[in-house]
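Late entry, evening session. Most of the bench is empty. Finally got around to the prediction I had been postponing all week. Sequence below, unchanged from the version circulated by S.P.
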Amino acid sequence: MMRITGLLRRFAAEIRGNVTMVVAFAVIPTVAAVGGGIDFANVQAARAHLQDAVDAAAIDATLDPAATPNDATRTAVAKKTFCNNIKATTGGTSGFCNATVRETLTSATGSLSTSTTNNIMTVRYSATAHVPTYLLGLVGIDTVDISALAKSSVSTSTSEIAFVLDNTGSM
């Protein structure tokens, strides 16, 4: 027992090799910080692509109310536009789009909702995705959840214009 405590005291008093120990302890937080920066940039790029696709889907679903007369056709048009905007030649396969999409958006899904108030149809398209991380996985963060929402409105009423010609001289 005395021998073990003596070894521990000598180990604690030893000053050679301290730089190696400090560097060894500093590597993990340094890699996590650098990885966090890289993964943060990757998540922001994925969020921008997701928002662009959601914006396009919402606008396309409201462009021509006559061409998309019901929720089923609006949903189909919005989904097609959304998927076309996240497609890529290389990446991963999306179950929602049944196509190859950007690697960071393989888990992206979207949904459409509509409401009409006072002859104004409002379309809301929302999407979510789980963006995989590269270096943050070292500290237990494997994915980052992102979401995007777009709202677009269009008037559904028609206007009537009447032109009256008075040729009676009273005017």
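Two things to note before I forget:
The mean pLDDT is 86.
The first strand starts at residue 87 and ends at 94.
Will write this up properly tomorrow.
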